[in-house]
Automatic annotation (TrEMBL):
Protein name: Nitroreductase
Native species: Mogibacterium kristiansenii
GO molecular function: oxidoreductase activity
Taxonomy, superkingdom: Bacteria
Essential cofactor(s): FMN
Pfam families (UniProt xref): TM1586_NiRdase (PF14512)
Domain Putative nitroreductase TM1586: 2-216
Similarity field: Belongs to the nitroreductase family.
Length: 228
């Protein structure tokens, strides 16, 4: 499975089987997280065989079942932390999909277990990602149109294919409550994306940037200076 296929096939999964993640796959995930932690200045941590975080009433109300493995996304608090967690966390999510695993981004419906990931002073948990072998593969969700989330991608023949492909990949990104609260604009080969308002929209912004870069191809454009 290539990375574009991973974007297309990956859906949120909340029910998981009692099936061990093989050691070789764990090692590949850990290597990817180490690289992302170093480049992104994060503290991503894989927690295995820990059922308590998703055993509470809130998790059950959100239909989480059988979650014993999850990734914690954390880092030292600053204005960019949430976006960085989204961007680099989604890189690990897509790798997990390529390795045959299923995932689900989780904002607040889990119990924090700080003894499992030993945060440093000043570090903050932003989100978690449930991971494992799903009882199903999830399903597609309703999506906004390209014109709802970008400037002119459906109405102008002059829009380059790389931009359309980037927006399309971004539209397949997971976002909180499926709000898709973001908007892309293009100025030649310079691209800007703005997050909407609401909880976890900065995390969503990092996720959609990750998807856009993959769909558009990083060599075809550059982000506005204030963007990643």
């Amino acid at each position: 499975m290539n990375i574009i296929e991973a974007i297309q096939r990956r859906h949120s999964v909340r029910q998981y089987l009692e099936k061990e993640i093989p050691e070789e796959i764990v090692e590949r995930l850990l290597a990817a997280m180490r690289a992302c932690n170093q480049v992104g200045g994060l503290h991503m941590h894989l927690v295995l065989h820990e059922p308590e975080a998703f055993s509470g009433l809130r998790s059950k109300a959100m239909r989480f079942r059988g979650v014993e493995n999850y990734i914690i996304l954390a880092g030292e608090k600053d204005d960019t932390l949430e976006e960085r967690c989204g961007y680099y966390g989604e890189k690990v999510v897509l790798l997990a999909q390529q390795l045959g695993l299923n995932t689900c981004w989780v904002g607040s419906t889990f119990k924090k277990k700080p003894e499992c990931y030993n945060l440093a002073p000043g570090e903050k948990v932003v989100a978690a990602i449930a991971i494992g072998y799903g009882a199903n593969q999830g399903k597609s969700r309703k999506s906004k149109s390209m014109c709802d989330v970008s400037d002119g991608t459906e109405v102008s023949l002059s829009v380059p294919e790389w931009y359309k492909n980037g927006v399309l990949a971004a539209m397949m990104a997971p976002t909180a409550m499926n709000r898709q609260s973001f908007y892309f604009e293009r100025f030649g080969n310079v691209v800007s994306v703005e997050a909407g308002k609401g909880p976890f929209t900065k995390v969503d912004l990092g996720i959609v940037k990750c998807h856009f870069e993959i769909g558009a191809g990083k060599d075809n454009f550059q982000w506005m200076p204030e963007d990643m």
